[in-house]
From TrEMBL:
Pfam name, any one: DEAD
Gene Ontology CC entries for this record: cytoplasmic side of membrane; cytoplasmic stress granule; P-body
Similarity annotation: Belongs to the DEAD box helicase family. DDX6/DHH1 subfamily.
Domain Helicase C-terminal, residue spans: 242-332
Domain Helicase ATP-binding per the UniProt entry, residue ranges: 62-232
Region feature (Disordered): 1-25
Keywords: ATP-binding, Cytoplasm, Helicase, Hydrolase, mRNA processing, mRNA transport, Nucleotide-binding, RNA-binding, Translation regulation, Transport
Positions of short motif Q motif: 31-59
Protein known as: ATP-dependent RNA helicase DHH1
């Protein structure tokens, strides 16, 4: 592609997303991604992924992160939060430097896989290497992969601490530390692990924290580990505007009938159903299938490869309903 050509005209752009959007995404200041002075190769990945203009959280956080500021951002899921920290990471990483230059910590395997996919999609023209590491997968495979260049490491806390403690993952020169879902990451279960991971970082590292809620644990962490952070709060409620919530109080024996009624009366393209036990997950998926609705299930006792396949096919739209056990809270 020549410098003088209109490089955008050569992009392989997806079909325009015509789905209705809420104020959480539309209420912007009118900036464009070009306003952030991003690398052309990064802009190519952004536009080819279907992004058109930055969302409010992206407008606020990306310039601050690119300027080297610590950022503490509160934003709802579904507002472009993930790209808000991935885009600065991709811009700041130096592909020719064979070092881990950004660590992105997330609470679950599934979120780690999703996040790494966004890194690869947006950074596909940059030559940036991204690796995922989570509990329940082969440590030996991680060791082999870390012998090759890895610029961005996405993982869950326990496995990352294990790799750092064994000196397999070298974070001593890693300049960027990211935590998604910081409220969950700083729960009693994870807080000690996070503190230990930070000990492997250089003193002058940059921290980017994103969360839907700011409990006292996040505030305490900010005061201890962040340097004059730029604070962003773009929400006054947890639910995206335009989404209605309903609560149905039914007895145990009525739950399946209630689901059947919802499926038959409402136009539901896809649904995720949460259960409180692994046994119930499998039983409910079977009963929903018997009612004539396609349904997969996923829980922590399943092999990781099987879980990955389930989520991949659900995201591809091959099945309408997904029955899960504590997907949001299952941490590794």
């Amino acid at each position: 592609m020549s410098e003088t050509s209109d490089w955008k005209s050569d992009l392989n752009l997806p079909q325009k997303d015509t789905r209705p959007q809420t104020e959480d995404v539309l209420n912007t200041k009118g900036k464009s991604f070009e306003d952030f002075n991003l690398k052309r190769e990064l802009l190519m990945g952004i536009f080819e992924a279907g992004f058109e203009k930055p969302s409010p959280i992206q407008e606020e956080s990306i310039p601050m992160a690119l300027a080297g500021r610590d950022v503490l951002a509160r934003a709802k899921n579904g507002t472009g939060k993930t790209a808000s920290f991935i885009i600065p990471c991709l811009q700041l990483v130096k592909p020719k430097l064979n070092k881990i230059q950004a660590l992105i910590l997330v609470p679950t395997r599934e979120l780690a896989l999703q996040t790494s996919q966004v890194v690869r999609t947006l950074g596909k023209h940059l030559g940036v290497q991204c690796m995922v590491t989570t509990g329940g997968t082969s440590l030996r495979d991680d060791i082999v992969r870390l012998n090759d260049p890895v610029h961005i490491l996405v993982g869950t806390p326990g496995r990352v601490l294990d790799l750092a403690s064994r000196k397999i993952a070298d974070l001593s020169e890693c300049p960027i530390f990211v935590m998604d879902e910081a409220d969950k990451m700083l729960s009693r279960e994870f807080k000690g692990i996070i503190e230990q991971i930070l000990e492997f970082f250089p003193q002058n590292r940059q921290a980017l924290l994103f969360s839907a809620t700011f409990p006292i644990t996040v505030k305490a962490f900010m005061e201890k580990h962040l340097n004059k952070p730029y604070e962003i709060n773009l929400m006054d409620e947890l639910t995206l505007k335009g989404i209605s919530q309903f609560y149905a109080f039914v007895e145990e024996r009525q739950k399946l009938h209630c689901l059947n009624t919802l499926f038959s009366k409402l136009q539901i393209n896809q649904s995720i159903i949460f259960c409180n036990s692994t046994n119930r997950v499998e039983l409910l998926a079977k009963k929903i299938t018997e009612l004539g609705y396609s349904c997969y299930y996923s829980h922590a006792k399943m092999p990781q490869q099987a879980r990955n396949k389930v989520f991949h096919e659900f995201r591809q739209g091959k099945v309408r309903n997904l029955d899960v056990f504590r997907l949001v809270d299952q941490r590794y």
